[in-house]
Amino acid sequence: MQDIIAKVTAKDDRYACAITDKIISESRDTDKWYEYFDEFASLLNHPKSLVRNRVLNILAANAQWDDENHFDKIISDFLVHVTDDKPITARQCIKALVQVGAAKPQYIPRILSCFQEADLSKYKESMRPLIERDMGETKKALMK
User: Fold this and answer.
1) What is the pLDDT of residues 19-38, one digit of tens each?
2) Are the beta carbons of 144 and 108 closer than 8 angstroms?
């Protein structure tokens, strides 16, 4: 397992992204990566935003396999990234919440509440409308 964490956090971002894409793709059809859920979750607060982006998407892709309710332990840490310091990470988190809500509908009220309470004032004028649009699209997808 240490090996997969090393690969997802590798300095070579292209390589780490390719590994992450493979994990996400395989997670659509199989629960083979779910057993590493807690290890991936341990990277949620990684200092490097690209690693946080990868992990948010891996965890969201594996929400559908979460029969053991590991997500209950990390939902608060996950939602913190709705207003991540890096606007790109915030956007990745917001978009990933569509998968989380689809797999775990019990979180939808909490996700929507998080959006309502989110203070976007720290973001540049150029980024704020994009984040607001992402929240709107995610909210729409969750309300279906």
Assistant:
1) 999 999 999 999 999 999 99
2) no
The model carries a pTM of: 0.95
Amino acid, single-letter form, for residue 91 = R
Strands (E) across 20-144 are located at none
SS3 call for 6: helix
Q: What span, in angstroms and rounded, lies between the C-alpha atoms of 66 and 96?
A: 15
Q: Minimal CA–CA distance to 41: which of 57, 25, 30?
A: 57
The boundaries of the domain holding residue 101 are 2-143
Q: What domain count does the chain have?
A: 1
CATH of residue 105's domain is: 1.25.10.10
* Amino acid letter, residue 114: C
Of the candidates 132, 105, 137, the residue with the CA atom closest to the CA atom of residue 121: 132
